[in-house]
Give the backbone structure.
Amino acid sequence: MAKVKVLTAVLHKEGNMYVAECPEVGTFSQGMTIEEAVDNLKEATELYLEEFPLEMKAKPIITTFEVAPVAEA
């Protein structure tokens, strides 16, 4: 039996939609809600992995950082 993989979903809002990305695989999807975007991402990722199996090496490190403000023209 195959082991369940735990992957990452990174989301951001574009207009009235949420865009979801799985950085380990490179798949994207969208939805009107966060839950819909993640569900759609899960489906897209599962379909992708059927054709292109993922060799899990190490979990990516995800962090945040700050940038200096940029002067507006």
About this structure: Helices lie at 34-51.
